[in-house]
Amino acid sequence: MGDRAINWKQNLNVLWFGNFIAGIGFSCISPFIALFIGQLGNYSTEQVSILSGMAFAAPFLVKMVVSPLWGILADKYGRKPMLLRASLGMAIVIGSMSLVTSAWQLIVLRLLQGIFSGFISNANALVAAETPKDHVGQASGKLATGNVSGTLIGPMIGGLIADTFGYRYTFLITGIAMLTAFFLSVFFVHENFKPVERKKGEKQPHFLSGIPTKQILFGMFLTTLFIQATNNSISPILSLYVKQLDPTSTNIALTAGIIQAINGVAMVSIAPFFGRLGDRIGSHQILKFGLFFSMGIFFLTTFAQNVWELGTLRFFIGISDAALLPTVQAILAKYSPHDRISQVFSWNQSFQAAGNVTGPMIGSAVVLIGGYRGVFIATTILAGINLFLVRKNIKSIETDKN
């Protein structure tokens, strides 16, 4: 038991770093993607906008489709092989982006980046499977901070590297970091994997079929989608909104990057606390708090008058994320059959990718109708829909808890 206790904590620390780097890899390009594409050819403003949108969405669209496949393979062959496949593939692909000479080459590599997804979902599945039950909430809380903080802080890190060394070095440095995660996973991640024995000719179960808790699991998938959509709805217009709030500023990009990253800072700081609290009072209680809290903060953001108020409110959104995202991971871990846990987390990653795509699309569309502040009204409505859907599932969770 002693070796197992050491291994799950070691796994958690190594995979936190891998999740953090993977999150950065998917988001570090966002502050300068349009500027970088503008340097790759003689494109018009309209062409740059279209190509930038394609490059931004490419990995998430592919990840939506392929993530369940990696989950099936992980449940069949083990989560660690999938971690190594994803980390090495992403290291090569992201590093190769430093060599592109056209926007289409960048888009193709971004598509390949989506194909080599799966590190985060398999890290979640491995930690859930290898962690003692009474520590799953705490471990899930800490692990979730790696992915989310990497995704949120990534734009600021990418912008700083680009300003200091140039755009191409952002990809090169991120690729090297992901290669480091690969080698750490090879030597320091341990898995006690035993494939489920199936009778000859027996087919792999489809999606959630035959799982008694499938209603709870699917509810968590939808919750993940809405959380990502609400978090990312501001992404396309954040720098423009900051400029509207502070038109005399000469550091719009840096200010926007800090505001985009600040909720990641809050989440890293507070998520482990919510994880431990959820282990004691029930994850469903933390989920309810997070949903109510996020609705209030999104609504208040509509009335922000300056960048300080906006930054403070985004910090509070980080607190709600700290309550919501790790809790979803903990509930998925608790209610997933052991032999299909990787599939469950992979499907959750697909819904996460869907939220990453739909959120910015909704935000961009709402700006045309209701202006920048209208985005936060729409986000409040989305959070309300999420709360309504979760309340239908929360009774099942509370019944099981009692």
Helical content class: over 70%
Q: How many helix segments?
A: 14
Largest sheet: none
Structural class estimated from helices and strands: mainly alpha
Mean pLDDT over the full residue set: 80
- Cα Rg: 20 Å
Describe the structure.
By secondary structure, the chain is mainly alpha-helical. Helices cover 81% and strands 0% of the residues. The chain has helices at residues 2-27, 33-39, 45-77, 79-96, 103-115, 119-130, 136-165, 167-188, 214-232, 238-245, 252-281, 283-301, 307-335, 341-401. The chain starts with a helix and ends with a helix. The model has no long low-confidence stretch (mean pLDDT 80).
Concise account of the structure shown:
The protein has 402 residues and is mainly α. It has helices at residues 2-27, 33-39, 45-77, 79-96, 103-115, 119-130, 136-165, 167-188, 214-232, 238-245, 252-281, 283-301, 307-335, 341-401.
Which descriptors apply to this entry?
mainly alpha, globular, 402 residues
Helix-strand blueprint:
Blueprint lengths: L1 H26 L5 H7 L5 H33 L1 H18 L6 H13 L3 H12 L5 H30 L1 H22 L25 H19 L5 H8 L6 H30 L1 H19 L5 H29 L5 H61 L1
